[in-house]
Amino acid sequence: MLMVVAETTRSHRAGVSPQSGADARTGSMLTSTLAPLAFSFLLAFSCLTPAQAAIVADNHAPGGQQPQIANSANGTPQVNIQTPSGAGVSRNVYSQFDVDGRGVVLNNSRANISTQLAGMVAGNPNLAKGEARVILNEVNTRDPSRLNGYIEVAGQKAQVVIANPAGISCDGCGFINANRATLTTGQVQYGNGQISGYDVNRGEILVQGGGLDASSVDSTDLLARAVKINAGVWAQELKVTAGRNQIDAAHSRTTAKSADGSALPAVAIDVSALGGMYAHKIRLVGTERGVGVHNAGNIGAAAGDVAISADGALSNRGVIQSAQNLQLSVKGDLHNQGQLYAGKDSVVTASATLTNDGMIAAQGDTRIAANALRSAQNSTLAAGLNSDGSTASSGALTLNSQSSLALNGRNMAAGTLTAQGRTVDLDNSRTSGARIVVSAATGDITTRDAVVAASEKLQLAASGKLNNHSGLLTASQLELKAMALDNQQGVIQQTGEDDLRLDFRAGLDNRGGEIASNSHALALSTSQLLNQNGTLLHTGSGGMSITSEGALDNGEGTIAANGNIVLHSDNINNRSGKISTTQGNAQLITRHELENSQGNIVAGGSLSLQVASLRNQQGQLIAAQGDLAMSAEGGLDNREGVLAANGNIKLDADNLNNHGGKISAAQGDIQLTARHGVDNSQGNIIASGDIQLQAENLTNRHGQVGTAQRGSVNLTTSGLLDNQQGTITAFDALGIQSATVDNRQGELQSGGNLNITIHNRGLDNRQGQIVSATALEIAGVNLALANTGGTLLAASKLSLDADSLSGDGEVLSQGDMSLTLRQAFHNAGRVIANGNLQWNLSGLGLINQGVISAGQALNLYAAKLDNRQEGEISAGENHLTVSGELVNRGLIDGGLTHIVATTLTNIGNAD
């Protein structure tokens, strides 16, 4: 009966050798006549079903390789496998091997045995010498084998090999009681009674519909030129190798074959959206150059590793995950639009470009390397990521690119994140880790609109520029190295106390940005610093040092520190900006100009400035609890500005313009030296201590120079001291040394002695006041004193030594007075001393239309005295010595009046 079935089946198989014409016709008629009767007869005895014709032994094979095919009692096809070799390999050759939904039983039992598919089956008489270790099923046909049911090994477990070079399809197939299942389109390499390997040249394995269930099998192998998975594959350990290969029997060594010119499959391993691989451990290998792996489904190892390698590209739109390690290696491009996840570590490498639009992550470490790596804005690269989305305790993320590295999505590491490339693009990313190390070997690092946060240390090193435009860089410790930094509208923060040093030789642009540090010390050096509307903030306990070889532009910006600040620059622009220390000192050094118009430079301690020139229009320079010292080789423009210190102020400049400005030492002295002029018009120079001012010229029109609580004022000018409508006061002594003093409508006042020394020119005190609370001394070479409407007043003694005195003003002393004039004097005012008055005109004339009075003795020496009708000369004792004529039309009065004159004419009163 079995032979008839085999012959009938074979007569319909393509490729059978043709018969002679008569024999062919006879055979055909015999078959047509007997087939209905035989079919009915056999069906009634349950020995033949339509499915039986799907498994046919190859009658061209040696007899020892032809299995016997029968039906079991319940109609399930049963294959009595051939006698195994000494190595335990049963070799069975078929011309057709198709399995329908009923499945098939491969009988590997010498005794009767119960099976899941067929119930009780009789023992296999071919196994008298022992059961098979390997059941090899070779199919010689031009058609793929269709496996639509389970393949069960009856008896002892064995490896099941199904080899069909024409291809294999699986739709609801599976294996029962097999310890290993191998589906291959390769030619079996058989010798010495055992399988040495598989020679794969063509053929496809297709899993579809009901899928492939090898979940009870220890290991499953799929070996083909191409593998297509359109349904689920369930296995313990799954190994898939695609391409033209020589593969050893253990599936441990694969040797790719050279190209033979045949058409390449589109994809070596293709898992569709309906497909999936579910195993404890998965390994996928595609060896054919230029032919890759595609996954739109699910590839998951529930307990072990997943390993995928491809000589071409890998495209993943689905899920590839492992409970343990995940390893992907491709020689072409790798494009991930889905999820790649490892329960332990993941290693992903691509010889070409790796593009990530999805997630690549691991609960442990993640290492990714490619020639070029690009991770899109909504993507994720992670290490130390638990399956529920929470963060693990550790996990290192390592990213390496031989060219460009673009990480624009979420990049996360529970431990260290390392990213290396020729250029590194982190724009728009959210990058975090305990430690982050990013390096760009030949180009820039960009973090525009990104957040890069390290809980411990952040290291960025670029051979080009670091561009953090609108980005955020934050860490407990920062280490940033680049030729230049662009931090426009960006934020850079160090929260820890380790010292921070930033060096950008090609410039730092912090316009609208913020660099904030809590480090102990902050040192920043650059060729040019742009901080317009930006903030440089140092809140640590140490100092801040900024060095700019070129410009430092802080227009409308802020540079602030708790401790000391030291700024070195070619020039500084702080227009409408703020440079401040809360507690420390501030030192600014520029080779050229310091522009502080409408700006504020405030030191909690002392403030020191060394500049070529300073413009402080409406600005403020303040030493809140210390001294202010400034050296300007050029000019100091403080118009409507403020120079203030709680301690001393020392200014050294070519010239000082303090028009409408204020220079104030609240608890100290002021020392001001100007090689040319000082303009204090409408300004204030005020100290609680001493004031020393030395300049070529001093203009104090409507201005004020003075000491408030104590101290003396000493003013020295080689030219003009212009105090028109100004005020110069000293709590103690006031000393003035000048070529010319213009005090019209001005005030010169002292609480101590007031000394005025004039060189070569005059003192103009018209409508002015020169007042001393003690002694007043005025002297000079070629001194001409104009005192029309003016007042000279001393509380104890007044001494005047001048060439000439003019005007109707007052010369007053509450004590003694000494007057020496070298030109004739016409007195229309009052010259009064409450004590003695000593007046020497050096042989010159005196015309008196005013009052000359002494409370005690008056000693007057003149060549001629004309005391006109309005004149009054009075004293306790009058001693008038006139070498010429004395004419009195007014009043000469005294307790004692002693007159010595060559000629005396008394028309008035002389007592």
From TrEMBL:
Residues 73-193 form the Filamentous haemagglutinin FhaB/tRNA nuclease CdiA-like TPS domain. Pfam families: Fil_haemagg, TPS. It comes from the Bacteria. InterPro entries: CdiA_FHA1_rpt, FhaB/CdiA-like_TPS, Filamentous_hemagglutn_rpt, Pectin_lyas_fold, Pectin_lyase_fold/virulence. This is tRNA nuclease CdiA-2. It comes from Klebsiella variicola.
